[in-house]
C-alpha cells in the first residue's frame, strides 16, 4: 500500500486542547498537566484509508499562537487544518473566524478544514451551542465535530473524516527538479559530479 | 489572541527575527534557556523576510513613508537603584535606501473576466506605489501596450513551440494560457503566489547553513530545490556554464580539447600545489591565463565557478573554486540549493525550533530601553513597548535597533544594490520552463560592478505560473538603479530597451539598496557587556558570515553548551504514560539523541573519504571521457529520481 504523508496543522487559541487532541490521537493518552508542547516539531500517525495509508504529520503551534505570532511557514504545504475551540469558552469560538481568515490568507488554497469543538465532556458548563458551531462550519464547507481528548471521544473520527476528504493523489509531477528534504545522509544516488 | 502580559523573567531576550537572531534563539532554547523573541514588525525575518506581492507593496509604502519622530517616553519610574537607562532606536528604515518601483505592464487587464476578486487586495496600495515611482508611466503604458501586442505577434510567428512566451506549466492551474502580457491587476490578484525575498542568496550544499539545518534537524521544516543550472552573460548572450562532469561532457559549446582542459584543470584545483602557491597575492585571472585555457574556459572559471572579479587574488579564487567543486553533486548538478517558498522560510524554521523548545514569540512588540547595572555594565532588564519590565541574563539584538552612535563600525557603511524583477520568460528558455538558474554577470560597462542574478521559476513557490522572479544583487557602486538598470535594459525587454530582440519582458520591478551587514562586530560597542549585536544580511552569496556570527554569540552566552544538537525525531517522542510526567520522558529522549549525535561525525568522515576517492576516480575517468559521454547522460536522469528519496 502506498503511504502518503499529509501535513495537518492545528490552529486555535491557547488552552483549547490542541496538543491534547494530538496526544490522544497519536499516543492514545491524556495528561492533565501537559506542558505546552515541548520538543515535538510534529507528531505522526499512520491510518489506512481506502487503498492508501495516510501518514499524518501533525504540526502543533508550539505556542506561537499565544501572542498571535504564527509564522507563515507553519501553514506551508498543509493538506488539512484542524481549528480547535473550547465548547466551554465562548471567546475561543469567537476567535475561530480570525483563524479561518488567517488560514485563507496563509494556507494553501485546497486545504481541508476541520472544526473541532473540544472538551465536550464538560457539557454542563457549555457556552457554545453545537448548532451554532455546526452552522458556521457548514457555511465555510468545513468538517465539524465535537471532541473530548480527555474521554477519547471522536478524536479518531475527526482524523477519519479528514482522511476521507483528502482528494486522491494527483498525477505525479513531470517536474524533474522536485523539491526534497535535507537529511543526514545525502540521497543514495546523488553520486559524484565534476 | 487576547492581549496577555508576557512573563517577566527570561534567560535570553532576543530582538529581531533575522537569520542570525533566529539561529541564536533556536540554539539557546534547544539547550533549555528561557527565550523571549520579539520583533517590532508584524512579519518574521526582518531584512531577510519574503513577502507576497501585496505584502511587498505594503512594505514599499512603509519604506517610503516618512518615519514618525520617536515618542520619547519617560521610563525613569522603572529604574531601580544603581541602574542606567539606554534607549533603543525606534525606527529602522535606515537600512533600506534608494527605493524605486517601475511597472512595465498595463495596470488593468481589459479582458479580465473576474474583476470582483481583486478589489479587496488592491486596497493594499498597488496603484500608489507604482504612481509614486514613475510620473511618465501613462505615456509609457500606451506604447508598452502596443509593443506588447507586437511582441506577442512576433513570438507567435517566430516560435511555434509556444513554451517560451507563456510558460504556464502547471496542469492544475485553472487559468487559461494567455498570450497577453500579465497585467498589474493580475499580479495583485495572484499576489499570494509570490514569495519575494528582500535578500537573494543561495545555499551551498556543503555550506555552514546546510550543515546546521541538517545537524539541528531544523531541515525537516522546509523543502528545497536544486539550482538546476549555472548561466553566464557574455557578449550579449546568456550561456550555460558547464560545471558538473555531466555538463562538461554534454556541453555543445566546448570543443573536445576544451573539455579535456577543463576537466584537467578542475581536477588539479582540488589540491593545493606549489605551482599555485607561487601565484599567491597575484590576480586569479593571471593564474588562469597562464594555464592557457582559452577565453571560453577562462570566463567560466573566473566569473561563474570562482565567482571572482578580475582583481581577486589567486588564493581566494582557488579557495572559492574548491568550495564550488566540493558542493557539486551532493544534491544535484550545481553546488546550490534554494528553499521552496523562498529564503525567508529559513529564519522562520529556526524560530519554530526555538518555540518547540519553549521559546516565546511576540511580533509587533519591541523593547524601548535597557536597564543597565552601573557597576557591572550588564543589562539586567528591558522595558518593552508596553512598559513592562522584563529581566534577562543576556540580550541579543539586531543592529537596526541600536542607535548608530553606540555602534563601532570599522569601515564606512557598505551597501548592496538589489533589484527584483517579475518577468514573463526565462533569460535562457530550455526544454523545461521550471529551471532555477544562477547567472553570473561580469560588469557590462566599465565602472559597473559584477552582478549575481538568480532566476526562480514558479515551482519554487516564489512566483505565479507564467512568470519568473529575478533577483539581482551586487556590491553598490552607486544607487541600485544606477548599478543594475543598465543590465536590466540589456537582458530584458522594458520600455527603456532600444531594440526588439526576443527577450523576456519585465512586468514589474523594484530597486533598492540595503546596508551590507558584513562590517559589524558582535562585541566592542558602547553597550552593556552581556548584549550582542547581530548584523543584517551581507552581500555574499552564501550564509557563512551569519551562521558563524550566530555560533559565536551562542558560545559567548553559553560557552559550555552544544550548538544546536539534533532535535528528536517525531517518531522517537514518547509521552510516558506510566510515569505521567512529560518532563522525565523528555529527558530520556534527549539522552537518546546525544548518543545518535555521537555517531554522526563518523558518517561525515566517511563521506569525505568517499569524496576523495571520487576525485581520484575522476582523474582516471578523464582519459575515458569519450566513451563515458553517453553513460553520463543516463546517470543524470537517475540522479533526478534519487532526490525524491526522503529520510
Automatic annotation (TrEMBL), chain A:
Its main location: membrane. GO terms for molecular function: GTP binding; GTPase activity. It is a lipid-anchor. InterPro entries: P-loop_NTPase (IPR027417), Small_GTP-bd (IPR005225), Small_GTPase (IPR001806). Residues 170-194 are annotated as: Disordered. It is found in: Cytoplasmic vesicle, Phagosome membrane; Early endosome. CDD domains: Rab5_related. Residues 185-194 have a biased composition (Pro residues). One of its GO terms (cellular component) is phagocytic vesicle membrane. Keywords: Cytoplasmic vesicle, Endosome, GTP-binding, Lipoprotein, Membrane, Nucleotide-binding, Prenylation. SUPFAM superfamilies: P-loop containing nucleoside triphosphate hydrolases. It comes from the Eukaryota. Belongs to the small GTPase superfamily. Rab family. This is RAB31, member RAS oncogene family. It comes from Sphaeramia orbicularis (orbiculate cardinalfish). The gene is rab31.
UniProtKB/TrEMBL annotation, chain B:
InterPro entries: FAD/NAD-bd_sf, GDP_dissociation_inhibitor, Rab_escort, RAE1_2_domI_C. One of its GO terms (biological process) is small GTPase-mediated signal transduction. GO terms for cellular component: cytosol; nucleus; Rab-protein geranylgeranyltransferase complex. Keywords: Cytoplasm, GTPase activation. Residues 416-538 form the RAE1/2 domain. Belongs to the Rab GDI family. PANTHER family: CHM, RAB ESCORT PROTEIN 1 (PTHR11787:SF4), RAB GDP-DISSOCIATION INHIBITOR (PTHR11787). This is Rab proteins geranylgeranyltransferase component A.
